[in-house]
Amino acid sequence: MNLNEYKGVYVFIEQKSREIQNVSLELLGRGRGLADTLKEELVAVFLGYGIKDQCQDLISHGADRVIYVDDSRLDKYLTEPYAQALDTISKFEKPNIILIGATSTGRDLAPRVSARLSTGLTADCTSLEISEERELLMTRPAFGGNLMATIVCPDHRPQMSSVRPGVMQKLAVDTARTGEIVEFGVNFDDSKFKVRLIEEVKEAKQMVKIEDAHILVSGGRGVGTAENFKNLEKLADNIGATVSTSRAMVDAGVMSHDRQVGQTGKTVRPDIYFALGISGAIQHIAGMEESEYIIAINKDKGAPIFNTADLGIVGDVNKILPLLNNEISKLTE
Ligand code: FAD
Question: Which residue is closest in CA terms to ligand 1's atom 36?
Answer without folding.
Answer: 145
